[in-house]
Queue: 2 jobs
Job 1
Amino acid sequence: MMNKYFEYRKHKTNFKTEVVAGVTTFLTMAYIMFLNPFILSGEFAGPEKGFFDFGGVYTATIVATAIACFIMAFAGKTWPVGLAPGMGINAFVAFGVVGGMKYTTAEALAAVLLSGILFLVISLTPIRAWIINSIPRSLKFGIGAGIGLFLAIIGLEIMGVVADHPVTLVTLGDIKSPIVLMGCLAFVTMIVLEKINAGFISRANIIIGILVFSLLAWLPIWEWTGASIKGSASLAKFNGILSAPPSMSYLFDAIDGFSTGKVFTASGLTVIFTLFFIDFFDTAGTLTSVANVSGKVDSKGRVQDIEKAMLSDSVGTVAGSLLGTTTVTSYVESGAGVKAGGRTGMTSLVIGILFLLCLGFAPLATSLPKEIDGAALVYVAVLFVRNIVDIEWKDISESAPAVLAMITMPLTYSISNGIALAFIAYALIKIFSGEASKTSPAIWLVAVLSVVSFSL
């Protein structure tokens, strides 16, 4: 049945490969179920009245992720993509909308719901696919590489290889720490397993790297004294196996958020537009990058079947807001599953099922050391960055905006900022170099929207 629906033979894959790909992507995305409620509850900035409840968002995150993945599996069945509440957007909602603009959690979720509906309406028309498919080929590869570099800085920070610095902003972390060294060795192992091209072992290199080094970190044989390692303690805490999932505190609160009318004010419309704008570019960049890795970009630079993926993404946001979490979007970590051989929606189905299983096995899922999880993100970053070889380097008017996208994403810590700046630069370069007439109208539209977003 699955073979007939997902057409494994047509896509040169099989059930086993799709399951492995789903597990691989899940392991690189697992941190989302903990990081999203961590951010929305304001835990890292200290508890503050009015922020979201950690437990309620934890459950909503898992259920929304599963639903969105199922939608992608069956509606966008040629896309092996994992979806979950987006990082960055959640921080905007928590600290910008709830903490800064003093919206209630219900009003904030109402804004997320409206942005999702707007996304859905556009996804049902050729407009959004036309815009994305009108992006020049070099800019697409630059966007993909930029997302890779953005993913790399996140992964390196999670690993502890990169740390904050008051003068230089970033510096080398504590690489003498044994758990950081574990993460580095996990990364090297993933690369070596791919290099040796040993069939299943190479395709499952990320899973093997994560599980083997997590197990080593859990063993009670380590103790770090600063000068030596002594046997008596583990490097990472094993938190157990089972727990009861918290109830969803904000189920359908988005509907109640309309009662005050705040989302229809000027500030509310600004919030809705910002949420839509960020989701638009994050999703466009992610789908473009995954398409590059999976071979879904044709000779003219157009992304195949992107309409199905966009529709699934937008419905996921609508569902997520009703469940009690922020904008659901496609994740760049999906590249890990694509690298493991995922080519159909079966990969997404597996991701969704595994997230649902974590409702009862949350302690076990949280036991994965973040340093080793970060190593997987850096590995995926390598896959995205290597596409820069296909940028049209001989034409600086094409390559310069691509490079701008690549470097501004990690430096501004924002995918949307990097894409917006690249489009603005591309439009200006084409105007002043006398090639405006050869430029797609979509470029002008996105460039104008980018300028508007920066002025808000």
Job 2
Amino acid sequence: MTSLRIMRNGVAAVALLAAMAAGAAAKEYRIAVGDGAGGTQEALGKAFVAALEKHSGGEDTATLFVNGQLGDEQDTVTAAATGTLDFSILAINNITPFSPTVGTLTLPYVILSLEDAEKLTQGEIGQEMVEQTIEDAGVRIIGWAYSGFRVLTNSKKPVTTVADLQGLVIRVPKNEIMIDTYKSWGINPTPMAWTETFAALQQKVVDGQDNPYMTINAMKFDEVQDYITNLRYIFSIEPLIISEQLYQSMTPEQQQAVIAAGEEATQFSAQFLRDQEAAIREDLVARGMEISDPANGEQEFMELATSTVWPKYYDSVGGKEQVDRALTTLGRDPAQ
């Protein structure tokens, strides 16, 4: 009887230790989110967390920290690279300084539709960018959020031509391609951290900024901006990155769950944009914003930007042939 009790106690102890080990193996990760609640970044993050819980059998989950709670977007790349942050969702222009070849996706007027964005990010070119970003920045792109075109907002006047831009003070991210695009249109923009932007608009330090409709809504820019111009110069893509240190520390099963969750979240994001953008645009108009289209089909903006900016950045994004590959992948002619 005593030996049976000892055996039972031993079995119970083993079971307890196994349960404790399983509990210890379960992870709750932190995901930095640059934008406020209600935008594409948060939507991608929520979809990723749900998919991660599913693919890990409930063992792994994550918490979103929206509105830059864990730091400026560029700072989160450094934090992830050094292993002090697990995941981050951020605008692609904030990865470009660390991994310049990704800048192909931020050259003005390379991407002209959501379908273009999906084809580039989910195809061979996108996979090469994933591998290059691991090497350059120490982070791995595992998902893509699609936020739409970065439309221009300002608090002073409708803008439909390059001439209308003159005299406006426009905030841009600390991204050389975007800075030079505005310079090609004849103005010197003001580089500024994302976390400082709303206050700068509110205090009239800057007159305007550009971001997708989803972000304008999430950040409540209608409270400090009156006019929108439907520019299509950059399609906003916002990668979900994981610390490569963290990824390499995972078991093959955990890695597989993370990759599968990222793929599901990517597909969700594309559909989210298709479902939500038009309604958000209508809501912003209802809240008092005035929307204008560029004159002459945006031709003036496009010609100035592509002729000036593309040649300057061919070398940094991997050569003119890299840009031509992107264009031919999209069924367009190589750059002149």
